[in-house]
Structures are given as C-alpha cells and as structure tokens.
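Hi L., both proteins are below.
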Amino acid sequence: MITDFVNFCRYTRNLCETTCTSYRHCFQLFSDFCVSRSLDLENVQQKDVLEFMTEKRRQGVSAASINQYIVAVSAFYDWAVRFRGFRRNPSAGVQKMKTEKSLPVCVPSHLMKLILDKMPENTFKELRNKVVVLLGYHCGLRRAEMLALVDADIDFHAGVIRVFGKGRKVRLVPMSVQLASLMQLYMSSRPASHFGYDRVLVTSTNEPLNYDQIAYVVKSALRPFLPAALCHCHILRHSFATACMNAGVSIESIASLMGHESVETTMRYLTISSERVRAQIQGVF
C-alpha cells in the first residue's frame, strides 16, 4: 500500500521526487510503530497517532520532524479513504506540535569569498566542485534543484538558469559573471557521454551526481573553515539570501529567486542581515 500511495503522489498528484521520498520514509516510521503495537492500519485511532507523536518526542525527534510525519500520515489516510475503502483519517484534527523559531545560520560574505578563492580550478573535478558551491551561494539553489539541472537549463546568452523547484514550479535565476565563466569551462571539460545523460553535474565517467556526492563536495569545501555542523548544502542558500539582503535586494525579489511560496519565509533573513540593519540605523540617527 505504501508503494501504491507513493506512486499516486508521484504520478497522479505530480509531487516532486523529494516529497515522495519524504512521504515514504515518514509513513514507514508510522507503519513500523503500528506493527510494534499490533495495530491494523485501517483501525488506527486518533489516540494512536498522538501516542506515536509522544513516543517520537521522547526519543528526541524534533517537533518539526514530527510535524512532517503527521503530514505524511494524513496524506496516506486521505488516499486510503478515497481509494482503499478506509472509513476515516485518524490524523484528522490532530494539531501540529509547536516548533521553536530558529534563525537561519549563514557564512559571512568575506569568509565565503575566502573559501571560493581557496578552491582550485585546474581539473574537471575541481571545476565541478566549485560550480556546485557557486550554484548554492550565487544562485541559492537547493540540493535537489542542482541535481535536476540539465544542459538545456543553462542559458549563457541570457545569463540565467532555469530551475525546477518545489512543487514542480519553474523559476529563472541569473548567473553571476564568475559562475557563468566557470560553468562554461566546466561544461567544456566534461568527458564524452556514453550513457546519453545530459545532466549538468556529473562524475568523471559522466554519470549524474547523487545527493550524497553533492553533500560531500560542499562539506569538503567548507570544513577547513567552519565547524562540521555547519558544513551542509543549505547553509549556502542561507548565505545567498543574507548576502542579497545586505546588498539591498528587495525581499520580494529574494523570495522569487529562492522559490519561496510566501514572503514571510524570506522575512527571517531580515533579522540576520546585520549589515543592512546597521546601515539603516545609522541613517536614522
């Protein structure tokens, strides 16, 4: 049933692969919980869903992650009621857990410049690795968005990249001069394809990179300068937004560039945009 549900999300609802994978993982955890309690999925009660949430919280799982579990459980039961004859959705009416509002962490622009200056550009792999970091820092791309890029998405004439974001939404993101120049060098140095792939980010044998390889590239670039906990792909996206904010780019423009559904999501970066706030305060007083 889980496979049928995920295929429904993938092919009928046209949800992105990241969401489908997340739904599968989250509901599998709930299914394992039901098995441990000898519960049949069709007869699960609301109290069982609440007990699942409580158990995960006691195990140290964050409230945000538990809320993701509940979204997946609710989506599964909505599907099961419509197509498998289930009588009700036991997660209906279950309130999400209150989450702490944490500020995004970013790398200061001067440190990011140092990191980029230290990255070599001599070999194919070195060019590719620097392109990966620039796609995150100069364009604000998510990891899944980087992996989905194909050659046709790179428009050197217009200086933009076509990005397929969450919910299959398409946006155009401008390339910096540095990224455009490096991207041309990288794409011209790629080995000849024997597999028919046209993905932008590939290995030395022209096979598409995967999630773990992208994470390793970013971690290797950032680790000499940052604590291990900060060496992840999303910190580049946070740093992109903060740099744009400090440079005076409007919140609406940043939200569009990052593919945010709501400007409220982008507003978080106002708090950590110290340079812009400091300049504004100096102007006031």
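That was the first. Here is the second:
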Amino acid sequence: RDSVSLFEYTLATLGNDPCRADIHWRLGRAYAQQQKLDEAVKQYHLTLAIESRVSAHYFAAHYLLAQALQAQGKFDEALDQYSQVLRQQPEAEVHAKMAELLAERGRSQEAIAHYREALRLQPGLWPVLNNLAWILATDPTNRDGHAAVQLAEQACVITCQREALVMGTLAAAYAEAGRFAEAVTMAEKAALLAEQAHQPELAARNRKLIELYRAGKPYHE
C-alpha cells in the first residue's frame, strides 16, 4: 500500500483495537512517509509503551523513532533510541546510523568505532567505507591517511568509480597521505562526475579542493 492507503487502513484498524502495538507502528510509518514527524514520534512511543516485550515491532519502533527524532534535530534522544536497538540487535545498519549521528555531533572517535563495527559485521558497505575514510582523512584529531586511502579505494572499486562523493573522499585521503598529484587527479574526476550527475554543490566543493591540493595542503574540517 502507498502511504495514504496505509494511513487510512491503520486508522480504521485502530478503531477496532487501539491497543495493538503493530498498528501504532504502522501508523507511525505512515506519518513518517508523509513527513508528519511529530505524529510519527507519538505513534512510535505508543508502540514502545504497549509492546514492552522483545519483538520485531518493538525494535523496529526504536529504530524508526530514532530516525524520526534525528530528522527533527533531537540528536541526543535519537542516540538513546539507537543505543537501545544495539543492545539487542547489533546490526551493521544500526551501527552505521549511530556513527553518522555521532559524527554530526562532532564525536568522531565514537563514530569511528561504530563504523568499524559495522564493517566487521558486514564488510563491503561502501557508504560506511566512504564515511569512515572521510573522517580519517579530514578530522582534526583522528586522521590516518594510510587507512583512509585503503578504505576509500575499496569504496571506489565497489562503486566502479561512478560515485562522485566516494571519489572526492579518495582525493582527500590521497592528500592526507601526502599524495597530492593523485589527489588533484581524483578530485578533478570527482568534480566532472558530479557535474554529469547534476550535483553542482559537490562539483564546486571538489573544484575548490583541487586548488588546496595543488598547493600541497590536505583538507581538514
């Protein structure tokens, strides 16, 4: 069902049995699909209040609630929800989401740990490889150019060098490792690919970084 029909179906079902956690969970998803995040959060909280035992809906509700709270900018609350999921379901996707949020909060060292655990659980996740490589190439206090190059090169292989974001990360990794000629070449390729993919902001960022790499300087956030 699409979001509208699911929304209507869920409302109708709740009229018959308002204490079913799975129905509140579906209603939360319907609200989230319609970008009604306040309503979605309420429904996820109801799901968790009703469904206190271990179940698929229980953990899915924590995960979806975390995503909704993150979208609202309630980062500490979102982190708490992700943490509750990880206690019972330590899956790669959840570790990756946790790492992403921690990185946004400037907690890079914790983010690195979660990204590495995600890769341990599921090697070859190119967005995780890319994000971890970016931190190790650009973070002020957790840089490791050699490791960043290895991760970014692996992500480029997996994506067949068709993702401008990944190629830009590899350029930053090369620069951090002191391989500036390669950094310039890769950043040029990333900018061109971004333009072809109609990603003007990404193209502009890479072209700006080219000048930095030509000057023999790595990019640090």
